[in-house]
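Thread amino acids onto this structure.
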């Protein structure tokens, strides 16, 4: 099997680097914005599975947005009731994401591939991110993130299939809870962007011309014998919804061209 470079979480939606662990934010890690107060906030929320039960021991990341880039500032795991908490959050712009990897897997850059026998990849999103929310540091606040349903039996097709290089490829998946639209993100074997589909409000997409539209792959056709990978991104809402979930995605499936 071709060895992939670590996937950026959520590809075009989320690109993160693990920089801190635990639920409290060290003061030497982040500097309060100029002119902001020095009060601290607490961010709380909960995760449930597709059947409505608590998602326990799931990895949750607090992400800070700085000058257009994203930085992990704290990670935690949900408790036995599916609840999580980030304490001592200083002034800044943040979002919260669930990720399918454990903290150690994220540190190593491990990829979680779509495997029908693995409940992590068939019953859970690969990731979900909320929209951005701001804390000005001028008063103590608690941010309650709306409950996030991480369950998605995505049923990705194709998965591990060898496909003819002269025929259109039909990608299909099951509907995600509360999603309003989707797109398909295809990568080469080195995790370079190859093709991104238009947004669709159905649970399938047919790629007819098999030509790339990303970076150096614009106009290039898929190559026989090469392995490619894809995931399906789900859109829940627009970025104005604050701490509510806005984007999510599956784990990664592969296909090989014949």
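Threaded sequence (258 positions):
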């Amino acid at each position: 099997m071709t060895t992939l470079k670590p996937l950026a979480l959520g590809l075009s939606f989320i690109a993160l680097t693990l920089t801190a662990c635990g639920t409290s934010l060290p003061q030497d890690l982040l500097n309060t914005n100029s002119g902001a107060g020095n009060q601290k906030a607490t961010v709380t929320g909960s995760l449930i599975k597709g059947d409505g039960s608590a998602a326990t021991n799931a990895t949750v990341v607090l992400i800070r947005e700085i000058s257009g880039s994203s930085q992990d500032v704290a990670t935690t795991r949900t408790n036995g009731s599916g609840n999580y908490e980030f304490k001592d959050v200083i002034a800044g712009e943040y979002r919260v994401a669930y990720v399918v990897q454990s903290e150690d897997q994220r540190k190593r850059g491990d990829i979680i591939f779509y495997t029908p026998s693995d409940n992590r990849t068939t019953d859970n999103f690969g990731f979900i991110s909320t929209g951005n929310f701001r804390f000005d540091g001028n008063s103590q606040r608690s941010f309650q993130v709306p409950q996030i349903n991480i369950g998605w039996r995505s049923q990705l097709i194709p998965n591990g299939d060898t496909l003819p290089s002269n025929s259109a490829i039909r990608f299909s998946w099951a509907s995600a809870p509360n999603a309003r639209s989707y797109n398909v993100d295809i990568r080469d074997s080195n995790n370079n962007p190859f093709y991104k589909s238009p947004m669709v409000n159905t649970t399938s997409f047919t790629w007819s011309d098999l030509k790339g539209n990303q970076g150096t792959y614009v106009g290039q056709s898929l190559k026989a014998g090469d392995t490619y990978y894809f995931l399906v991104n789900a859109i829940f809402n627009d970025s104005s919804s604050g701490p509510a979930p806005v984007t999510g995605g599956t784990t990664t499936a592969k296909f090989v061209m014949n």
